[in-house]
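Notes to self after the call with IL:
- keep both proteins in one doc
- input above output, always
- annotate only the second one for now

Protein 1:
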Amino acid sequence: MKTPVFLILLSAILSFTACTKNKVTPLSKKLDGSYTGAFTSSGPGSINTTANVIISGKAYQGSLNTTFGVLSRGSYVVNNNQITFTDSIVHTANFNWGLLLNGVYTATTKGDSLILVKKGTGYNYTYRLKRQ
């Protein structure tokens, strides 16, 4: 007779355990930090270089190690796994504006890694970054 009582208790415990929700941390809460890694672009004038990105609160700063230097700074908004960066620096017109960290990127996080991808017709911009 003890076996059915044990099975009933075990079933009850398992059903309550199955109902608990895992806490999911929103992407925006995971982003704060300083990142370094690689930037690659595909398409005309493709480039591979080092990138640095600092995210703090709702502000960011991004830079690429190129011969003329590329600096972006501004604010961002997260919507699901999409991040929209809005650059607030005034730039000259003599370089590829696609190299700025600006516009809508798909974000993926895993551990201390942050991957940002912006795709368009004929080009892809990818940041593969590690938190420092």
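Protein 2 (the one to annotate):
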Amino acid sequence: MTTTDVARPEIRRPAQKRSRARFEAILDGAERLLDTLSPSAISIHAIAAEVGISPPSIYHFFPEPQLVFSALAERYLKHFEEGVLTEVPDDVESWQDFQTLQYRAGRNWFNAHPAARQVLLGGPAWSSDIRMQDLDSNFVMAGHSIAVMTQKFIMPEIPDLHDRLVEVIVINDAIWSLSIHRHGLITDAMEEQARRARIAYSRTFLPEYLPLRADPEYLPLRADKAAS
């Protein structure tokens, strides 16, 4: 048997209500630990002590510690997709301002959530699984951006717009990650660098001016439709 034939451990997702509550309590405990500790300093036994349950109870759901971080990544990305960067600002006049407000909301959320910074942008907690989750979420978020922009602006036909907006997110995240590595937060100065990079790259595929949509009753495309 080769190393590629060995089955990789996976999260055991609970079906019963009581088990789901314990599953979420484990994630809550790991999140509290991440507020003050690096992922490399967190073991299954440390999580068990934080939650007040036995280590085997955690191993039942998470055969290795990295899977706890993977499950936390799912939680954070779902929150980000559903609650951050999805609203249409009322007071913007340009796509540049719209983009800046979107990412400012994301930056504020990350700066308020130390555990999320470590899991999604901090680097050491990353595994290939978390990286793939993050890239998949970038695709979803780019679709949301297209839907919201379509509600706010009269959009021309732009080839591969979805892919280009995913690339904007990846560029932004690289600068945010560097800021977290250097300073522990996304600083004002590094956010300004990220803003410049986002707008400079966006100008390679977006026109400098997008006319505002006059019809307030216009409904945006759903994100999945915008991706097609």
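Annotation: The chain has two domains: 3-67, 69-226. Residues 218-228 have pLDDT under 50 and may be disordered.
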